[in-house]
Structure formats: C-alpha cells, structure tokens
Amino acid sequence: MKGPQFKVWLPVAASLLLVSCGGSPHAPEEKYFLVATNIKLPYWQAAGAGFRAAAVQLGVKTDFVGPETYDTKGQQEEFRRILAQKPSGILVSPADPELMKGEIDRAIAQGVPVITIDSDAPASKRLLFIGTNNLQAGVMGARVAAAKLKAKGNVLIYTMPGQANLDERLRGYREVFAGHPQIKIIEIIDVKGDPRIAFDRTTQLVESKKPLPDAFVCLEAMACEEVVEVLSRNRISDKIVVAMDTDPGTLEGIQKGLIAATIAQKPYTMAFVGLKWLDDLHHHKPAPLDAPWGQNTLAPIPSFVDTGATLIDQSNVQSFIQAVESATRKRGG
C-alpha cells in the first residue's frame, strides 16, 4: 500500500463508529461477509473471532468464508459466490490484489460496500484499508535482524511476491538494509502459501554443505516454524530467525531462543472494526460509492486505519501469551 492520504487513529475511529452504528436499524436480511484464504490458520481464526464479536454487538448476521488453503482462484470464486447473494457488505483480504480488483469493483458498482483488511488492493475501488502499516512492520523486523547481525551478513527471505502486504514488508526490510551495505539479501523464496516449500528449501540449503545464510526472515506466518524445525533437526543454533505473526509454534520458538523476534498484528481488531465500518457504510452510503474518496480532503471515510503492530521477543513473549489467554477467557473463547 503506497502513500495513504491520511489516517484515523483507531480509538477515535472506533468511538465514532460506536456512536453512528449504535442506533442503526438492522433489517432481518442484512448479512455481512469476511472473505479470506487459508482460513484455518490461527491468524484468520482470530480475525473470525473479532468478526463474530462485532456481529453480536451489532445484532447482525455474518459469515466467514474462503479457501482452507492458500488458493487465490478459490478466493475469487468465493467472492463471486457471496456477491450473488446480495450481501450488505464485504470485508476481504486479497491474496492476489490484481486478481481481486475486478471483483471488488463489481461489488462497488452494485452498491455493496467493500473494505480490505490485512492485505490491500489499492488499485481497486475498495472504500478503505484496515490493517497493519506493513512498511513499518518490515522496518521493525529489519532493525532486529540488522542489530543481531551486527550490520553484516547474508539474509534469506521467505514471502509470497505479489501480495500487497508482504511486498510492503519486503520494502521495509530493503530500506533498512540499504543503510547497512554489508547486509545482503541473497535469495527470496516464494512459499506459495505452502509451508512445505520453506521446509524443503531450507533442507536443501543445509544438505548442500555450502555456507548457510546468516539470517532467515519470514514475511508471512507459516515459513519460520518450518525453518526452525530444519535448523533444530540439524543442530544449527547460530542463525538468526525473524518471524511474522503469533502462531503458537512461533511463540514457542521465541521462548526456546530459536526465533529472535516476531511481529504481532491485530487480525481480531481488523475484523472487529471492519464490520462496524461496513455496518455504518451500509446504512449511510457515501455518494457516489465509487468516487475516489482517497483523493478527497472532505471524504467521510479515511483511506487507511492502522491497527498497529508489536515486536515480540524473549523480553515480552511470556507477558504477551498471558495477555492473549486472559482476553480469550474473558471473551469465552
């Protein structure tokens, strides 16, 4: 995502939405959808929980849908299927922003509000993006890597090129490493949504008997657990691993000293706030819905709501786990 026009701080946005949505009449046929991919991942399960929690507060119907594996075409087909149901609004995390652009634009043309969360499709007519400032998330991780490397070493990166949020994280890493000319990105691996690719490539590197990279960086949630598994099996303990997100295996890796740090996002918050925005936009549609609101200084909606990110390392991993467990118990999860 490049150059958002402006931000609305989350607490302000949320409070405004609570006021505006609190008195909204909800017709029995109202229904909102969250469309993701790999929906069985802990990350997306957290988003689904936030979506359901907001639905309970608002008293509306919702459905959380999408492929159970990384399947960009499957996500496109699922989006088309729910659009045919005339939904009240759609949250979507575009795995392939170019592929989803036309689908999002068709929904907007039919008067259906669409908000992107987690991953953006900035070239589409989506109304706003709610999620992490992914450039800053990349910067955050890169600073950890640079410090651990003492500003010198070779880095291997696992990602999925073309997915907007991951590309922004990579840009953050490149920007930081540009200030450390002795740090080199020697390979970028496309894991294609399949953690086995990360496992297999790391295994190949170990078995090649050639010098290994000094650091392994994961821009998505799945790869680093596989990297750590390979390194551990081969009793390699002198490599730096910087992960993304807070899957249980990643947090365990930090506790054991196998992963230097990870960047925690807020998928629960993205979906929770996203549904409240959708509800408000369904009842109070800006006119016309397909206007370039991001370029309008008097727009009734922001371009970007930053839900924040947190660096998790050994200094705070235990308190983070305890806080999540406490919040889960309070929600009855």
What's the structural blueprint in terms of helices and strands?
Elements lengths: L9 H13 L8 E5 L6 H17 L2 E5 L6 H12 L5 E4 L4 H13 L4 E4 L11 E3 L2 H16 L3 E7 L4 H14 L5 E8 L4 H13 L7 E4 L4 H11 L6 E5 L3 H8 L5 E4 L2 H17 L20 E3 L3 E3 L4 H15 L2
Parallel strand pairs: 1-2, 1-3, 3-4, 4-5, 5-11, 6-7, 6-8, 8-9, 9-10
Antiparallel strand pairs: 10-12
Helix pairs in contact: 1-10, 2-10, 3-4, 5-6, 7-8
Task: Provide a compact summary of the structure.
The chain has 333 residues and is of the alpha/beta class. It has helices at 10-22, 42-58, 72-83, 97-109, 134-149, 164-177, 195-207, 223-233, 248-255, 267-283, 317-331; strands spanning 31-35, 61-65, 89-92, 114-117, 129-131, 153-159, 183-190, 215-218, 240-244, 261-264, 304-306, 310-312. It has a 6-stranded parallel beta sheet, sandwiched between helices. Strands 7-6-8-9-10-12 form a 6-stranded mixed beta sheet, sandwiched between helices.
